[in-house]
């Protein structure tokens, strides 16, 4: 059996990580023939098995901004040529531009084949203005003709339904995590201070990192804790200045971009998120796989698809409520719940192991 996987690029990102993980799982353990078509560049940030063939669309790597959209017809033609050459049993695409390319090829060029796409974003939060109108039109048209749409969470499925996609075309398959590769936090209980907290993500307003800084300032009035922030983004200077204003600059460390956060998670005691919304919550799941308890906001969508209740390794607090965030962290410390929640989260993360998720993908495209 053979797969053709289409994606915008193989740069660092959640969709790229999932595609690389699935490609490796299929090729290494299932004797599948896998071809990846990258619309922009064949250079992969994530490790990809040498058994997986990677092909990039000639000339597309030099296109920027709106020109990438104008290149979609050409990219569809290129994909059609690859399909004729490799004759895959299934074609699956990731991310909006790749999904449109997938549909155009199936509808106009490689007629008669099935169209499988992976939808990974909350559309209403992804675009604005003209770009929102354009993508809503294109995706409604494309997804209306898809055979199966794989949504990564309930909130993503709800967005698809609002777009007009038929319910029977949608299947929810969460993102995977490779539990066996994580270095697991091994302390039976937290010993001494400071309490070491980590959070990750792009430094943008929707992640609400400033709320975590306010919480760290409040907690340090009772006991010492530190915060490491892994990620880059336009709010770096603002957050750095805020830490100085709150007089916690010596307690907060901006790590910048970290190529493999899973390698350092086991050095911390607690993972915290304050996101306004998440289509899934990859960083939270990675923390649980590493055996860290997580403190996360309610009402964010995708995170609540991972942890249905607090006994699965997560403590929820009302999103946007800094006092509630402070109380959740203080309660975790004062009642020494790190080990209990860490073990629960690690065991819960096994439900998202790459082998299980790969089986779910196989079932979805084979039905």
UniProtKB/TrEMBL annotation:
One Pfam family in the UniProt entry: Glycos_transf_1
Classification via InterPro entries: Glyco_trans_1, Glyco_trans_4-like_N
GO molecular function, one term: glycosyltransferase activity
The organism's place on the tree of life at top rank: Bacteria
Biological source species: Citrifermentans bremense
Record domain Glycosyl transferase family: where: 195-336
Sequence ranges assigned to domain Glycosyltransferase subfamily 4-like N-terminal in this UniProt record: 13-179
Protein name: Glycosyltransferase
